[in-house]
Amino acid sequence: MGLLKDIYGIIASEPKAKQQIEKAVLKFLRGGFWAAPTRQGRKDKLEPLIAQLTKDDFSSRFEDPLAFFGALLGMIVETVYTAGRGCLIEKLFLPGYRFYFPAPAKEPSLRLHKPLLGKDAYWGLDNQDKSKYIFYAFKKGDGGQVDISKAGAKLTEIALGNPIIGEAAAFTKWLRDEGHEVTRLFGISRQSDTAALHYLSDSDWENYLSLNYTDKTTKASVADELTAVLKFILV
């Protein structure tokens, strides 16, 4: 339940957001299970959390927009961890890109990292072995449109096939073989000089991918895709 408590910590630090969120959801985030939940039990509790965090006006309750994106990032990873398989997100505030979040084998933790050497603080996840949790942004290398249905079907095929090299390695290899540019990401940060929010690339701190908030359909799309992935149960 560690990741859920990390998300609760973010929301609890934002008074207006905490005031708006439903009491049952807050209890769940604090670890309100009396006993260790089944996977189905976790899914049943996650659905109202997804609905809450993706409400159109909920992000406006955060005084610090970066905190909202930290909570959103944590919720996506908690969802794929619970489902036991990765997820494709068609819209996540970065026009032209699609996103892939692999399911971690063990529940990671979420925190605001404050690196040295003048780097900006960022929200990111740490695996239990202290390595960074990596997620991916991808687009067609020739500038064409990503066939999200084809990519989703392939991801399902790989997840169900349980390849020896692992889901993430198999799926990102397929993406590259299909002509996609794949960028490894590890967090969301804010530039100290401009206050602009951006994704951080695993390969290059300076390769900023700036978030864009103009598409009003993004949150509803995220809610639909996370709810759909919760329907999968991998034994």
Q: What report would you give on this structure?
A:
- This protein has helices at 2-12, 15-20, 23-30, 39-53, 65-83, 148-161, 167-177, 218-229; strands spanning 87-89, 98-101, 109-113, 122-126, 135-140, 180-190, 197-201, 209-210.
- Strands 1, 2, 3, 4, 5, 6, 7 and 8 form an eight-stranded antiparallel β-sheet that branches.
- The protein has one domain (2-229).
- Helix content is 41%, strand content 17%.
- It has eight helices and eight strands.
- The protein is globular.
- Helix 4 (39-53) runs antiparallel to helix 5.
- The chain is of the alpha+beta class and 235 residues long.
Largest sheet: 8 strands, antiparallel
Mean pLDDT: 88
Along the chain, the helix and strand elements come as: HHHHHEEEEEHHEEEH
The total strand number stands at 8
In whole angstroms, the N-to-C terminal distance is 20 Å
Please give the share of residues in helix. Answer: 40-55%
Could you say which overall geometry the principal axes of the C-alpha atoms support?
globular
Strand fraction? 15-25%
How many DSSP helices? 8
**Unreliable residue runs:** none
The total domain count is: 1
Rg, please? 17 Å
Structural class label: alpha+beta
